[in-house]
Amino acid sequence: MRRERRVVMLDDFKPTWMVESLYHISPEKLKENGIDTILTDLDNTLIPWNNSIGTNKINEWIRFMKENGINVIVVSNNNPKRVGIAVEKLDIPFVAHALKPLNRGIKQTLKRFKLTPKQVVMVGDQLMTDIWAANNCHIKSIWVKPLVETDMFPTKINRFLESVVYKKLKKKYPNLNWKEDIY
Length: 183
Ligand SMILES: [Mg+2]
Fold this sequence. Notes:
Number of strands: 6
Strand order of the largest sheet: 1-6-5-2-3-4
CATH topology: Rossmann fold
Number of domains: 1
Bound molecules: magnesium ion
Radius of gyration: 15 Å
CATH class: Alpha Beta
CATH architecture: 3-Layer(aba) Sandwich
Distance between the termini: 38 Å
Largest sheet: 6 strands, parallel
């Protein structure tokens, strides 16, 4: 398999939308944008590190989404065991070892669940993994704030890079701001 080499551009990190949290996103706005499936990152996007959101609340949200015609699939870089345990009580499918920012996990997900790029959106708390991966797959993306501020060490490095990239994005796209929902 041949991999094309190309220069990384600022726009590779540009999210389609920026929303306060996954839990702010409404089914109505998703449907207005032709989206019926959320691909969500796990850690600090769907589930906080410190379990400050109970399983019940997450389940309620997933049920609300399903009732409104929106499917939720977890796409995580974490290992299958960790993701399996985290997602078990939530009764939603998952793809682990996604290798974000590479396109592998998202491509696999589209294929396995017979989804087109247009009907999905990738939601995640990191520009350097979730949003970059979405752009590598030419799908829409929503950058959300991390549910908990503390991060593991590798994420801290990404956070630093992220703050540099976000400053540049802000300069180029002054309207790119945190919103209550997509639009
Ligand atoms: Mg995350």
